[in-house]
Amino acid sequence: MEKILTKKKPEKSLLKPLKKTGGRNISGKITVRHRGGGVKRLYRIVDFKMTKMGEKAKVIALEYDPNRTSFIALIEYPTGARSYIIAPQGLKVGREVEFGEKVSLSIGNRMKLKNIPVGTFVYNIEMSPNGGGKIARAAGNSCQVISQEEKYTVLKMPSGEQRRILGNCFASIGVVSNAGHRFQKIGKAGIMRLKGRRPVVRGSAMNPCDHPHGGGEGRSPIGLSHPKTPWGKPALGVKTRKKKKWTNKLIIKRRRKKR
Length: 259
Description:
Blueprint: E1 15-17, E2 42-44, E3 56-63, E4 72-76, E5 82-86, E6 96-98, E7 110-112, E8 121-123, E9 125-126, E10 133-135, E11 143-149, E12 152-156, E13 162-166, E14 170-173, H1 189-194, E15 251-253
Antiparallel strand pairs: 1-2, 3-4, 3-6, 4-5, 7-14, 8-11, 8-14, 9-10, 11-12, 12-13, 13-15
């Protein structure tokens, strides 16, 4: 854990229970496999909208959040109200963050995309006005403002995709903290069990009745021209995005292909 964290115990008023589902839906059927167990933890209520506009808030602590890869910052408003926000890189205790339609270009400040200069890195971006931050919230993630086009702002996504987003949407200045998370070594299977991930079995190790890849003598190939899911659907590299999705017109450049 990085030394920047200053507080171990979370704010009690910003906690709520986190019920485990084990990958099951309301009917009790497993809809997400390989889920279950894990350590018990409480959910930290993070303010993704930041609705208190025009008020400067002071950063009083930087904390670890077991529910996300990034760190979170505890801020306090002049009225005494406190809330959690996603902490960007370089944010320190004692600094002030401000939310408004147009504020200074400092790390952690939040304003409308149309007022952010070209080339600036932003995170926790709204997809629709007042919808709350949805894009670039994971550790080390950020988007870059490429250009301003009438009512739209063109952003370069972490995937390389270039996309138009309404300029009235809010975004925070900076890059999400804990960029070293991607280099974390799991070390042993028990760590994944603590995270609530159960063991995964290869399809080729199963019987034909359990998986399309199953069967054969010894360690044999899958016997198919392309891999399939356990339910017989094409897998690995198949495009699942709808061809006629209305937001396609907002995408200028598709994401880069994996090598």
